[in-house]
């Protein structure tokens, strides 16, 4: 059955730079993986109607689901692929603490999230994770600037600070001149770039993106992926769900799910170092 991620850290097998941005103290062992999931299962329904959305390999003796086990290193860029219904969104919802597993453990940045209550989980989501969805999920009739300020408002930042940081995030995605525009005054690609700015404004350790380019034309897709490449290049961990090989080409590692189990796990580039498809002019921001 599927190879899991043990040993993906590289242990010196990769030739990328040994020290990454923001991580000058990284030793040979490196920091612990930002994501550690152990034998995680998720099922819906009961009895004969049970759907094992995440099941992992089956126990060879009993046939019981053994669950999904997966580590993701800080700074990695992981694409999760698989056909419709294979469990991609289920996995992402668990990784993002939007849903809880039926079985198994999930350690995020060393914290066992299974032990947190709803209030603590929402703090974790706000502080550690930036979400990007296929349907943008912007607030209607609200300017780009106000959308991007929102997560900072939840985090308790003051108004001047919110404005400054939201404008910086909008500049990073190339939309400084659209900060007063509402969603219906922006193209699809621009709306998704606002959503990317909103996801990154709190400087989360991890970006989770579920089909972020699923509703975009090819030009906007390249723009959004270029921004995500740039964010990964400066040290953000990215987990991105996609159906498309063209999108997965940007990732350092590609995991494929079939029927709720990992069936392949391929490294396309070292964790340390820039993502494989990055365009150099996009590193460090856009004009
Ligand atoms: N709330 C739910 N109740 C019952 N079954 C569910 C629920 N959510 C998901 N499932 C089932 O779990 C399985 C995995 O769903 P999931 O949404 O993770 O698939 P996916 O890989 O993201 O698919 P897609 O590419 O279509 O988005 C599917 O068979 C789905 O029908
Ligand atoms: Mg899905």
From TrEMBL:
The keyword Transport applies. SMART domains: AAA (SM00382). Residues 35-284 form the ABC transporter domain. Residues 1-34 are annotated as: Disordered. Gene3D superfamilies: P-loop containing nucleotide triphosphate hydrolases (3.40.50.300). One of its GO terms (cellular component) is membrane protein complex. The keyword Lipid metabolism does not apply. InterPro entries: AAA+_ATPase, ABC_transporter-like_ATP-bd, ABC_transporter-like_CS, ABC_transpr_LolD-like, MacB-like_ATP-bd, P-loop_NTPase. SUPFAM superfamilies: P-loop containing nucleoside triphosphate hydrolases (SSF52540). Keywords: ATP-binding, Nucleotide-binding, Transport. Pfam families: ABC_tran (PF00005). GO terms for molecular function: ATP binding; ATP hydrolysis activity; transmembrane transporter activity. This is Macrolide ABC transporter ATP-binding protein. It comes from Kitasatospora indigofera.
